[in-house]
Design brief:
Deoxyuridine 5'-Triphosphate Nucleotidohydrolase, Chain A, dUTPase, 5% helix, 4-stranded antiparallel β-sheet, binds deoxyuridine-5'-triphosphate, binds magnesium ion, 5-stranded antiparallel β-sheet, mainly beta, globular, single chain, 147 residues
Length: 147
């Protein structure tokens, strides 16, 4: 793909986001903060990353939680998956929530989430009176049972 332009504002001397292993889908992003940020249970904080990007048209970035932080401390992204639009020129920020039982302090330079670069297609609609039939029909929300 065409290269993404990236601007880094380095408060905490963190390196360029990078893939931690050869087969990693996501590049870890760092908390760009001078001091620790405490997140009390059920609190939400917006953590800066110091990263600004310009994506080629047709690409998006998804930012997702790190499983280790979620499992060990209940630190996850309150918006599930964050969408970074190709025309967004602001700083990538990470809305974290603490779903754990204890306060957690995000340290300067800590890896807080991961970004995945993805292609997307433009959806188009055609308005119709009736949709085509399928075996599933309107069944959903567990209608096929548990086992
Ligand atoms: O976790 C996130 C999610 C979004 N963004 C930035 C990039 C994105 O392009 C922009 C808008 O995000 P979104 O469309 O999800 O939010 P919105 O509430 O619909 O805001 P807007 O009205 O600005 O689109 O905010 C982040 O930095 N982190
Ligand atoms: Mg939006």
């Amino acid at each position: 793909m065409e290269k993404c332009k990236i601007k880094i504002v380095n408060k905490s001397a963190q390196p360029l986001p990078g893939y931690m292993t050869e087969g990693s889908a996501g590049m870890d992003l760092y908390a760009d903060t001078n001091e620790g940020i405490e997140i009390k249970p059920m609190d939400i904080v917006l953590v800066p990353t110091g990263i600004f990007i310009s994506l080629p048209v047709g690409y998006e970035v998804q930012i997702r939680a790190r499983s280790g932080l979620s499992l060990k401390y209940g630190i996850t992204m309150v918006n599930g998956i964050g969408t970074i639009d190709s025309d967004y020129r602001g700083e990538i920020k990470v809305p974290l929530i603490n779903l754990g039982k204890s306060a957690y302090t995000v340290k300067p330079g800590e890896r807080i989430c991961q970004m995945i670069v993805k292609k997307y297609i433009i959806g188009e609609f055609e308005v119709v009176e009736e949709l085509d039939d399928t075996l599933r029909g309107e069944g959903g929300f567990g209608h096929s049972g548990k086992l």
